[in-house]
Design goal:
Blueprint (H helix, E strand, L loop, with lengths): L1 E6 L2 H18 L4 E4 L6 H12 L9 E4 L1 E3 L10 H8 L11 E2 L7 H14 L5 E4 L21 E4 L2 H7 L12 E4 L2 H5 L3 E6 L5 H9 L17 E6 L11
Parallel strand pairs: 1-10, 2-3, 2-6, 3-5, 6-9, 9-10
Antiparallel strand pairs: 4-8, 7-8
Helix pairs in contact: 1-2
Bound molecules: 2-amino-2-deoxy-6-O-phosphono-alpha-D-glucopyranose (GLP).
Length: 245
């Protein structure tokens, strides 16, 4: 069953999400954190940086595995998800960078995806997975499909995702067309999932994903079957489900 938290605004949403992550790390110093990119988690990461600076939490023994990476971008490229994570979180906390993992977008797809799954297995899976929500219901880069993906795989990004992500690039043509993403099967084995979504544009997909049918056409809908998922919304993204929760 999904637990819903409706925060007043993005700041409060970020504080709630960071609070859950902090509590997991405080209870389990060497937690394996599954992390996400996109604009949604930026505030959460800011809160975690503040908490670290205020000595409320240390990430020294944590391991992180990110959800996804664009194919063809190397970690030095400022549009890569590796760069995003360094810039928005890892450079500002005490996590050992050698213990932070993002798929390598330059490696061969088959080899990289297999290696990434083996890596996650070797850590005993993910303790807490943070997720954003794509406008079409994607999680990680698991786009709507005929079946739920299992492990890490190469995916072709949909037009809607390319369109949504073009804001980070100079031109739409610069947005990579392929990515490597952790699979839905792996996300579902995370002990705890925290999904954050803010803004009016997400209100309709929030309703579809969490109150509609469980279907690979809306990948996030599978979380209805996860034993410990918390969805944190702000008032704008929650408008269509307020009466249902
Ligand atoms: C990208 C990422 C997802 C993210 C989604 C939503 O496609 N691969 O992990 O959840 O965008 O992004 P935003 O939080 O910017 O709306």
């Amino acid at each position: 069953m999904i637990k819903f938290i409706v925060a007043k605004n993005y700041d409060e949403l970020s504080k709630k999400a960071a609070g859950i992550i902090k509590s997991v790390v405080v209870l389990n110093n060497d937690a394996v954190l599954g992390l996400a990119t996109g604009s949604s988690p930026i505030g959460t990461y800011k809160e975690l940086i503040n908490a670290y600076k205020n000595n409320e939490v240390s990430f020294k023994n944590c391991i992180s595995v990110n959800l996804d990476e664009y194919k063809g971008l190397d970690g030095e490229n400022d549009q890569s998800y590796r760069y995003f994570m360094n810039d928005n979180l890892f450079n500002h906390i005490d996590i050992d960078k050698n213990n932070t993992f993002v798929p390598n977008g330059l490696n061969d797809a088959t080899e990289e995806c297999k290696a990434y799954d083996n890596l996650i297995d070797s850590f005993g899976g993910v303790d807490l997975q943070l997720l954003g929500l794509g406008l079409n219901g994607h999680i990680g880069f698991n786009e709507p499909a005929d079946s739920f993906s299992m492990g890490t795989q190469e995916v072709a990004l949909t037009e809607s995702t390319i369109e949504a992500n073009k804001r980070f690039f100079e031109k739409v043509e610069d947005v990579p067309k392929f990515a490597y993403t952790m699979g839905i099967g792996t996300i579902m084995t995370a002990k705890k999932v925290v999904l954050i979504a803010s803004g009016a544009a997400k209100s309709s997909i929030v309703k579809q994903a969490f109150f509609g049918a469980v279907t690979p056409n809306v990948p996030a809908s599978i979380l209805q079957m996860h034993p410990d998922t918390t969805v944190i919304l702000d008032e704008e993204s929650a408008t269509e489900i307020l009466e249902l929760i």
